[in-house]
Design goal:
Elements: H1 3-17, E1 19-21, H2 22-29, H3 33-45, E2 50-52, E3 55-57, H4 67-70, H5 75-86, E4 94-97, H6 101-113, E5 134-138, H7 141-147, E6 153-157, E7 161-163, E8 168-170, H8 172-178, E9 183-189, E10 192-194, E11 198-201, H9 204-215, E12 217-223, E13 235-238, E14 245-248, H10 254-262, E15 266-269
Parallel strand pairs: 4-5, 4-9, 5-6, 9-12, 12-14, 14-15
Antiparallel strand pairs: 1-3, 2-3, 7-8, 10-11, 11-13
Helix pairs in contact: 2-3, 5-6, 6-7
Length: 270
């Protein structure tokens, strides 16, 4: 196991329980206690955890892995979900994307799908629109950076204060821009999906921006791997009644699909 893989695993264990003991981690990863101590020291230097005698604890109550450490989790599922979501977008549409690993994959899939300046329009009604093949509105700096070099895609970024964990822009400046745009569809990444509470995010400022994205869009598509189903997070984005479609992997259980369908949400599994 490489250092990067060890760090991913250590941070996931820490996210699950809020604390971690050296001996426990060494057993789980099948490495020496000395290796775990060095890993924890280095992660503490990057301010990803707080070192304690004999282990480590998470930063605060609402612990969230930085985007670069979440990117390898459920990677294959996220790519399939992203490709399916990108196939739902038609040429000329205005698409909103919030931040996160799955929406980043959606952005990459859109870039490939519209690489020639126009996507396959089979089955779509009306003429192919002139102008950009696609307009993307995002508050995620990494998504904007990846799409800005694609001449066929018009990229619109919000202002705001950047959060280093997710590269998302939040705050009044972000709200001001989103209040001035109209979206055909928004693709939202979330941290939890609950049948009663709806979809949620770890941070209240990110949740409020995602909620505004949903309010500005004619269609709301949620993209999430099945590990988020039934999971709750700190801040509510919106109820299931605001969601048109949820795209997830085949790991979702039948009961969750039934609950979402009963709430009026169409579920697409890939």
């Amino acid at each position: 196991m490489s250092k990067h893989e060890r760090w991913n695993t250590l941070l996931e264990l820490l996210a699950a329980s809020g604390k971690l003991e050296v001996e426990e981690a060494a057993t789980a990863l099948d490495v020496s206690a000395a290796t775990i101590r060095r890993d924890l020291d280095e992660l503490a230097e990057q301010q990803l955890l707080i070192r304690t005698r004999g282990g480590a604890v998470a930063h605060g109550v609402s612990y969230e892995l930085p985007l670069r450490y979440k990117s390898t989790r459920h990677a294959a599922e996220k790519r399939r979900i992203a490709e399916a979501a990108a196939d739902l977008i038609t040429p000329g549409e205005v698409v909103g994307l919030n931040g996160g690993t799955t929406t980043t994959e959606v952005a990459r899939a859109l870039a490939l799908r519209f690489a020639s300046g126009r996507a396959d329009t089979a089955g779509t009604a009306g003429p192919v629109p002139s102008g950009p093949a696609l307009t993307v509105v995002t508050n995620a700096l990494n998504i904007a950076g990846e799409l800005a070099v694609r001449p066929q895609i018009k990229i619109v970024t919000t202002g705001g204060v950047a959060r280093p964990q997710t590269y998302e822009l939040v705050g009044p400046l972000t709200v001001g821009v989103l209040n001035e745009v109209v979206l055909d569809v928004v693709v939202l990444g979330v941290d939890g999906v609950d049948p009663g509470l709806g979809v949620m995010a770890h941070q209240e400022d990110e949740a409020s921006i995602s909620r505004l994205f949903a309010e500005r869009a004619s269609r709301v598509v949620v993209v999430t791997d099945s590990s988020k189903m039934g999971r709750r997070a700190f801040a509510r984005i919106c109820g299931l009644d605001r969601i048109d479609l949820l795209v997830t992997d085949t790991g979702i259980d039948a009961e969750a699909v039934a609950e979402l369908t009963e709430a009026g949400v169409k579920v697409l599994t890939v």
